[in-house]
């Protein structure tokens, strides 16, 4: 009985992952040995609500008095262990019927099948519901990622812009970008007075310097935009066109394919349950 791994730890690990744990006490074998009960007690500590106890091969335990004696021995042995001494203890008798050897022993194996079926139904419902939540989480996460990546310079703080373009231009640039962002986002109407200010400043510039001013202003704007984009990518990595396209495709696939498949599986599951109920 030597294994290259800890058998008890493996069994308890399986028990934690399982939905149900069946403990079969064989009246013809050594079901009450210390090693078996140690594992059962350890399982009861972590997942006692999953444990189900059964007296297997109950038809081979002799007469009814013999079966009662065997069950009393098992119950007494379990009650000696604090982890297994629980109220409402149940141990149905089960066995595989043999037409050539009829038995008067009550066979509760149908209840075992119902317990398994109920656990499967709960697992299917839980899995399908979790699939729906995971799909919504993926779609919302992709949407938020694309929204955050859509604007770069708007994520700068005034302090970052001070270090980037100087204290004099930081505040106007920050306000203009934020104002432009919200104007585009909320479709805000810009009053005519703003246009009047621009016209006044344009007339204030000498006519000989207007073309030069446009060139200098354009070059400065392009330089500031390039610097802002460069430093923004250094501090906050932006998505490439390929990455954005891939995210959009993933979101569409989850929305159109995965969620549709989930609805189809749920309908098939309900139809199967209804058919079994009618049967």
UniProtKB/TrEMBL annotation:
UniProtKB keywords: Membrane, Transmembrane, Transmembrane helix
Record field: transmembrane: 181-205, 211-232
Source organism superkingdom: Eukaryota
Name of this protein: Uncharacterized protein
Source organism of this protein record: Triplophysa tibetana
């Amino acid at each position: 009985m030597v294994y290259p791994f800890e058998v008890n730890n493996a069994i308890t690990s399986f028990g934690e992952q399982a939905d149900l744990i069946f403990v079969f006490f064989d009246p013809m074998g050594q079901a009450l040995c210390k090693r078996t009960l140690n594992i059962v007690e350890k399982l009861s500590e972590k997942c006692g609500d999953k444990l189900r106890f059964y007296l297997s091969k109950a038809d081979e335990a002799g007469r009814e008095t013999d079966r009662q004696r065997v069950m009393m021995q098992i119950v007494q042995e379990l009650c000696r262990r604090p982890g297994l001494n629980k109220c409402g203890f149940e141990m149905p008798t089960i066995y595989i019927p043999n037409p050539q050897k009829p038995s008067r022993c009550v066979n509760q194996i149908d209840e075992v099948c119902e317990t398994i079926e109920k656990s499967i139904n709960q697992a299917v419902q839980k899995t399908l519901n979790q699939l729906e939540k995971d799909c919504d989480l993926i779609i919302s996460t992709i949407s938020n990622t694309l929204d955050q990546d859509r604007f770069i310079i708007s994520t700068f703080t005034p302090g970052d812009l001070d270090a980037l373009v100087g204290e004099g231009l930081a505040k106007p640039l920050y306000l203009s970008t934020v104002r432009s962002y919200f104007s585009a986002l909320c479709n805000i109407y810009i009053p005519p007075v703003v246009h009047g200010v621009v016209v006044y400043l344009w007339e204030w510039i000498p006519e000989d310097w207007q073309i030069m001013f446009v060139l200098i202003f354009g070059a400065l704007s392009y330089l500031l935009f390039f610097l802002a984009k460069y430093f923004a990518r250094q501090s906050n990595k932006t998505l490439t066109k390929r990455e954005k396209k891939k995210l959009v495709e993933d979101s569409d696939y989850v929305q159109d394919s995965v969620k549709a498949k989930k609805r189809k599986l749920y309908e098939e599951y309900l139809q199967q349950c209804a058919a079994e109920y009618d049967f």
